[in-house]
Amino acid sequence: QVQLVESGGGLVQAGGSLRLSCAASGRTFSSYTMAWYRQAPEKERELVANITSDGRTNYADSVQGRSTISRDNAWNRVSLQMNSLKPDDTAVYYCKTRAYGRDFWGRGTQVTVFE
Length: 115
Hints:
The chain has strands at 4-7, 10-13, 18-24, 34-39, 46-51, 57-59, 67-72, 77-82, 91-99, 102-105, 109-114. Strands 2, 4, 5, 6, 9, 10 and 11 form a seven-stranded mixed sheet that branches. The protein is mainly β.
């Protein structure tokens, strides 16, 4: 089993920054691709960014250039630095990975961006 626990969400003014963190259990964390998703009210859950076991990254167009995903395999942690936040970034942000043939999700952390 894999457990994912997100932290770092909050209320921030447009133009500000937040750093989300996801702590993962599991002895083989370094082998997993890790991802951040988000879901805004009445919208589908969407991929924000992911990072492979060898550090390759991928970003949604909506956050490209404003966000950086990183991982620390020594601490079983993946982070998402988000800058120049916009009201459209308001959503619940989820950490996700796939292991043992299934997807694992955290419970999410709320990010609210106000003008």
